[in-house]
Amino acid sequence: MITPEFQPALTALKEGQYTLNPTHPLQSHNPLPPPSYILIRVSFVALNPCNWKMIDFSPAIGTVGGNDFSGRVVAIGSAVRKWQIGHSVCGFSTGWIRMSGRGNGLGRLPSIAGYSPITTCSPSHNALVQSYGTIKAFDYRSASCGVAIRAFTKGKLSLILDCITSTDSMKNCYAAMGARGGRYIALESPATRNQTAH
């Protein structure tokens, strides 16, 4: 497989600032570096609070930011057994580093079939998130956001991913969760004052 020499990438310009570099050089992937690595052609990325928080803490200048991604496996190392070329995957990669990672922390996208994703966002972004498959979007700034989600899901919501992990976002998540409980996952460690609250 022929890979391009360059790609657009969000790179660290200096502490507290990054830039969109349209010609960030790609590493050589022929062959893949260690035999345990896989190569993924990224289709979608997500920008989270950590992407603007991490840039303030001594990033390695010129390195690529970003964490969440999804795409398709286009090459595998000789030692890889779990993944095959063509698999649709999503995962998490630590940003602001110089080397790409192994195939750890990946999930295969067809294992989530059957779920009905809902989300919170600014109302101005409702059409955008729905174009990506969200069946319903709620205004996270509304005081009744969590209650509205619980009503919409008829008290059956059991899987919640909190990308913000603030006091307000946690309150919304727990207000939205069904009476039987479920699994709450946060992308950051909750503030100490919140860790004993639930």
Describe this structure in words.
- This protein is of the alpha/beta class and 198 residues long.
- The chain has two domains: 6-95, Medium-chain alcohol dehydrogenases, catalytic domain (Quinone Oxidoreductase, Chain A, domain 1); 115-186, NAD(P)-binding Rossmann-like Domain (Rossmann fold).
- 17% of the residues lie in helices and 30% in strands.
- The protein has a four-stranded antiparallel sheet with strand order 3-4-5-6, with no helix packed on it. The chain has a two-stranded antiparallel sheet with strand order 1-2. Strands 7-8 form a two-stranded parallel ribbon.
- The termini are far apart.
- The model is unreliable at 97-103 (pLDDT under 50).
- It holds the Pfam family ADH_N.
- GO terms for molecular function: nucleotide binding; oxidoreductase activity, acting on NAD(P)H.
- Belongs to the zinc-containing alcohol dehydrogenase family.
Identify the notable features of this structure and list them briefly.
single chain; 30% strand; four-stranded antiparallel sheet; 17% helix; two-stranded antiparallel sheet; globular; 198 residues
Q: How do the helices and strands line up, and which of them pair or pack?
A:
Elements: E1 6-14, E2 17-25, E3 38-46, H1 49-53, E4 68-76, E5 88-92, E6 106-108, E7 118-121, H2 126-131, E8 136-139, H3 145-152, E9 159-162, H4 167-176, E10 183-186, H5 192-195
Parallel strand pairs: 7-8, 9-10
Antiparallel strand pairs: 1-2, 3-4, 4-5, 5-6
